[in-house]
Amino acid sequence: MTNPSRQTLLGSLPASFDSGPEWLRALRGRAADALREQGLPTKRTEAWRFTPVRSVVDAEFSREEESAPSLVSAVPEGVAVRSLRQVLQAEPELLAGRLDLGGAPTHFAALNTALFSDGLWIDVPAGTAGEAPIELAHAISTSSERGVAYPRVLVTLGDNAELTLIETYAGGEAEQLTNSVVEVDLGRNAKMSHVRVHENAGLQVGRVDVRQGADSSYRSTVVTLGGALLRFDVRCLLQGKGAECQLDGAYLIDGEDHVDHHTLVEHQASHCRSAQTYRGIASGKGTAVFDGIVVVHRDAQKTEAHQENRNLLLSDTATVHTKPHLEIDADDVVCSHGVTVGSLDQEQLFYLRARGIPEDLAHSMLTYAFLKTIVDRVSHEPTRARMREALLTRLPHGDDIEGVA
Predict the structure, then answer these.
(1) pTM: predicted TM-score of the whole model, two decimal places
(2) Which helix (DSSP H) or strand (DSSP E) does residue 126 occupy?
(3) Which of 261, 283, 367, 376 has the most CB atoms less than 10 A away?
(4) Enclosing H/E stretch for 352
(5) Strand bridging mode 203-212 / 162-171
(6) 3-class secondary-structure state, position 351
(7) Nearest-CA neighbor of 218 among 182, 187, 193, 189?
């Protein structure tokens, strides 16, 4: 029996947008028009060919009313955190031109742009250094078995500002969908560390767009601990001379989980640097995808860009698709990329076994060490410790590993 409150994702788009400032109505209208014309992605969409979204695109969901994500920590002095809904009602001109930093949104990001109702704006004024991190918790809580929510976060850093942001996406049932968008705008010499943790058991589609000014620095660490379906995109536009970004990721999947990480780094100015390091472990019937793109534009001389994706397959039924690649239109660059898909190192395994460590414990120790190198890059010690614990709880003999790690 059909639930009358449910609609397909495209069917939930209104015919017109009548509330909010004119610029926001126009922005929502363009996003909706693009969706109606192009549709949501299918297997024929090149960048989505390994992402099984047909069941999501064709399904009917009940719309959940968004609220701003929960603040887990105190807000550092000098940093402003405001509800997007409240700002759009009281001072909408402050957000004009700031909700489409990555250009015209497409696919699920366009759907979020058309339909989000609230979120957070984190604004760090010029010269302000947030000494303590801001921690946000996104937890989808629906009144139905099949609900959809559209979280949205805008982060703006003025010149010479600094911020650490930690986001956790948790909860959710197998048929609940979270479609999130985070936008980051970094001024000259601004520095941001961004940690994102996926512990949601349901369906997740997320996108982060970063626009970087001269000499700015963006560091992302993404830790993904399973999920029925996760598709996560990060796009960094290095628009100012001397900007740099570091994208790190760790993923651990089992059962029939599917996790899909896509990165796009565009070097648009000279003397910029980027590095990507993603590591993943797939077991059971899980599927992992990594698709990393670096684009070096013609004026981006003196570019340095590196990509690395390492994967371990722990079962014969797990699958990994990986494709790091470079598109270079400049001649004075230093660029590299590398990928591996294999099993545990037999020499390391032999070394542990020769010292009396049981084989199954040795397997878990090496698996933990493989991902721990990424988790250890998280600068915030409480979050780093929590991520280590989360990994250990998902590995056999986690308690034994903790005693020797």
Answers:
(1) 0.94
(2) none
(3) 261
(4) helix 346-354
(5) unpaired
(6) helix
(7) 193
Q: How many CB atoms lie within 10 A of CB 209?
A: 21
In whole angstroms, give the CA distance from residue 139 to residue 45: 30
As separate numbers, helices (DSSP H) first and strands (DSSP E) second, the chain gives 8, 21
Closest by CA to 105, choosing from 155, 21, 33, 177, is: 33
> What are 322's two structure tokens?
């990986």
How many Cβ atoms are within 10 Å of 86's Cβ, its own excluded? Answer: 12
* Pairing, β 80-83 against β 120-124: antiparallel
Q: pLDDT at residue 142 above 70? A: no
Predicted confidence (pLDDT) per residue in 218-242, tens digit: 999 999 998 889 999 999 999 999 9
User: What are the residue ranges of helices labelled H in 209-339?
Assistant: none
Domain extents in the chain: 6-343, 345-405
Q: Are 119 and 68 in contact (CB under 8 A)?
A: yes
pLDDT value of residue 1: 40
| 59: exposed, middle or buried (Cβ count in 10 Å: 0-12, 13-18, 19+) | middle
- Dist. CA 51–CA 44, nearest whole Å: 11
Q: What are the tens digits of pLDDT across the range 169-212?
A: 987 666 789 999 999 999 999 999 999 999 887 899 999 999 99
Pairing verdict, β 258-267 and 287-296: parallel
Nearest residue to 206 via CA among 172, 230, 237: 230
